[in-house]
Amino acid sequence: MQKKLLENDHIRLRAVEPDDADIIYDWENNTDNWQVSNTLVPFSHHTIRKYAESASQDIFENRQLRLMILDKKQGKAVGAIDLFDYDPFHQRAGVGILINNQEDRGRGYATQAIELVKGYVFNYLHLKQLYCNIGSDNEKSLRLFKKLGFEVCGIKKDWLRTFTGWIDEYTLQCLNNEL
After folding, report:
1. Sign of torsion, CA 71 149 120 49?
2. Which of 92, 98, 161, 171 has a CA positioned 20 to 30 A from the CA of residue 82?
3. Cα(115)–Cα(143) distance, rounded to whole angstroms?
């Protein structure tokens, strides 16, 4: 039996559907997420609905791809994982992840989603590397990505402004050693 590329026994990654507009609207407008997503202003429901209805999911055309993270047992979306700045010439892309609800964090969703995306981009899209940018105060994300083979390759000093001052931002990368 062939292994499915974007799912395992516990989660499935799927394209954004029009029915996801309400949940994406809630996630994007949750101000607790704004610092890690670099969001400055709220999104309108109209804008999110248009996005969800027209998301073509063509990474080659859009240079980005958002996938919803579904808990297969519960049948609900628990988060999203994004590929962005896709560069087919240099064979790289950025990755970002959100598990929105506090009660869903620490349950392995992010680990599994990143592992699935790594398999997808390295074995199917044949990328050489994934990278991510993480604020120095986001210790959980730093531990998560390091656990999954990402290494710190750079630091941007006083890069992010927070309510309490400036913090550094780390750039981490994971290389596909098969290429």
Report:
1. positive
2. 161
3. 14
- The model's pTM is 0.91
Tell me the mean pLDDT in the region 145-165: 95
Residue 72 forms part of a structural domain = yes
CA atoms within 13 A on the CB side of 50: 5
Strand 92-99 to strand 151-162: parallel, antiparallel, or no bridges (unpaired)?
A: unpaired
User: Vertex 140, ends 171 and 174: CA angle to 5°?
Assistant: 35
Q: What is the CATH number of the domain that holds 41?
A: 3.40.630.30
Number of folded domains that form the chain: 1
Closest to 64 (Cα-Cα) out of 114, 104, 121: 121
25, two tokens: 């609207």
125 CB-contact burial (10 Å; exposed 0-12 / middle 13-18 / buried 19+): middle
Please tell me whether residue 110 adopts helix, strand or coil conformation.
helix
Q: What tens digit of pLDDT does each residue of 86-123 get?
A: 999 999 999 999 999 999 999 999 999 999 999 999 99
Q: Is residue 169 part of a domain?
A: yes
